Amino acid sequence: MYPHQIERLTGVLLRGGLSALVATAPENVLYLTGFSPHDDDVGDAQTLAVFTPNASALIVPARDVPAVVAEGIDVDHVVCHGDLAAAFPERQSAEIRRIREIVSAAASSPAEALVAALGLAGVRGESLGLDEGRLSPAAWQDLVGRLAGAVPAAGPLAEARRVKSPYEIECLDRALRLVEESLDAVIQALERGMTERDAAMLHAGEVVKRGGSPLHGVVVMGDRTWIRSASPTDRALRPGDLVRFDVAARHRGYCASVARTAVFGEPAPPAERAHLALQTALEAASDAARPAVTAGHIVETAALVAQAEGLSAGTCRLSGHGIGLAPRERPEIAGAGVAIVEVGEVLCLEATHWDLGSMGLVIRDTLLMTTAGARVMNRSRHDLVVLD
User: Fold this and answer.
1) What CATH code is carried by the domain that includes residue 43?
2) Are 374 and 276 members of one domain?
3) Rg from Cα positions in the chain
4) What does the pLDDT look like over 180-207, one tens digit per residue?
5) Which end of the chain is more exposed for a tag (fewer CB within 10 A), N or C?
6) Domain count, the chain
7) 3-class DSSP state of 242
């Protein structure tokens, strides 16, 4: 764990009068330990993490112990639960011996493993913060019954993750770069007859080629661009079509997303005017985003500019949020928002225009908050992309 994370998490403990933090949500487990739980886990958390000022612990299903050992996850204690369905060779390396040592002491359940891990970390009866993010009400009640003094901690952990370390900023920058490079490859390949599904699959493949993991993306064309959450279909590109991209990926656990709009051929004047107005509003929001201002101030600044450019408040919106180990993090950037922007936060700001039944336009930029104001991390421009 990097000194930045230790400092942020220790601050959570001090402010809450807590002896330990227990993470259940995948992004919080990753933040505390550097280990990324399986995304296909369903139900209550199978992977948990413990942080104290003096020790750290990771609780995993037995099936994940080989990955923890092979990846060299740097925690003080590893406790597992369940069975490992695998045979151990007669001649064993240091890695195999370590795996055998951990699984030989497996607990019967995640809750039992957590109790054991807390004991190893020296936490016995003191108050602790329990992340409720991946717990059902029944699982919460079960753990609270076992852990005296447990209080909800999902909110404080989310606050701790708001300000990013240099390493986190580097990871976010790389994630953003590979999403943009992949989108540029798609834009260069777009031609008449290419379908939404073709373009979406091409972007996902380009992300993988660059070492990232694709996240859910939106690619819509023509008379479907106004459907905000549409899934890609076999609708094919035709002359005059708008193409709306909203694509994302993860790199080293950190997320990035990009929203851009293109047009195949000459843009219609209404679309061109609306997009230019959105650009102007987004740039005004970026200029207004600086440390110590409120989220509401950023939104209000952009709204005034958008209206001055001829867009109505009913169709145009500026919003945003933090981004990091989760695609959407604190702070929330919304009208009347009271969150105060801090140095070191990485924010996504987006401007949208929805004309239902006709067209949808979205542009998004990622900003790093510095002492001097916002620095746009995107390398691609947010102009309306005109395809030949």
Assistant:
1) 3.40.350.10
2) yes
3) 24
4) 999 999 999 999 999 999 999 999 999 9
5) C
6) 2
7) strand
